[in-house]
């Protein structure tokens, strides 16, 4: 395997990891936005003495509408609480689960960034060592080590095992994300 093909594979893996982080952050931000939206349910109401627009917006935290008694464009909102007996179960459960999902997705993004950085450092060190071997860079051991200068050097087992470890991680992510995974 020549040096150019190794670099291309590492660039592909790096782009994949960056895309993973990007989509994870986008997903987390959109989860936060979705939690804050009032427009989970939109009701049309006719002949209401209080609702001027004829529309009521219901979210997982609030119910909002425009009051006829207020100036145009002023919205009246009331909090939905799990202690309100009229709040449906799916809204109460959504309040808990989406709050938990937001926290867990934030942790996932942190762990993905940490894993990416760890993988990047591993791949960088493997590539650097591979380059040093391919360019026949010497190691000047002190005389107390009793190691002579080499006539030649070649790639040992550690370099391919290091590459396979990175590829295994990438394959695991790809297999987990495939439509055929459980």
Automatic annotation (TrEMBL):
InterPro entries, per database record: Claudin
Highest taxon above the source species: Eukaryota
GO CC terms, sorted: bicellular tight junction; plasma membrane
Molecular functions per Gene Ontology: structural molecule activity
Transmembrane segments: 21-42, 97-117, 155-175
Compartments, as annotated in UniProt: Cell junction, Tight junction; Cell membrane
Family affiliation: Belongs to the claudin family.
Protein name in UniProt: Claudin 34
Organism, as annotated: Crocodylus porosus
